[in-house]
Request: fold
Amino acid sequence: MRNSTAFDVTAAGIRVLLMLVILAGGAAAGTVYEWLDADGVRRFSNTPPPDGATVIRKTDETPYDEAADAARQERDAALMEEIRARDAARQAAEEAAARKKAAERAAAQEKERQAAKDQRIRDLEKENQQLKDESERRVIYLPQPGRPVQLPSGVSRP
Reply:
């Protein structure tokens, strides 16, 4: 009588081995066909379509090239770095433009404040001059005993 466990392991091993052979054989096939069958259904296969089928596309497999893949990955990394650098430069330019705009706004506001101060100073100087002129007209000239009052020219007696 046979050991059923040994048989199961052997049968499982054979199944795994067969699957690996089938998968390896399919991967090595190399050409993929896209075609329409007689009912108009789109099919994909690694075997040529039957006679009378409309072949849409035949794609030959490109074998894996480790060196080419490494070079592609290096190019991708370099492109990603370039994109990051461009993004950083763009962001820095936008921030600089925003700072410049804020500085221009602040300068314009300061100019307006200074103009308002200057106008206030002119207004106060004008008011001060008016008060001086008015105070000169209001000077009271007191006569000295025994002397007539002499008023400056342009000033009349009230």
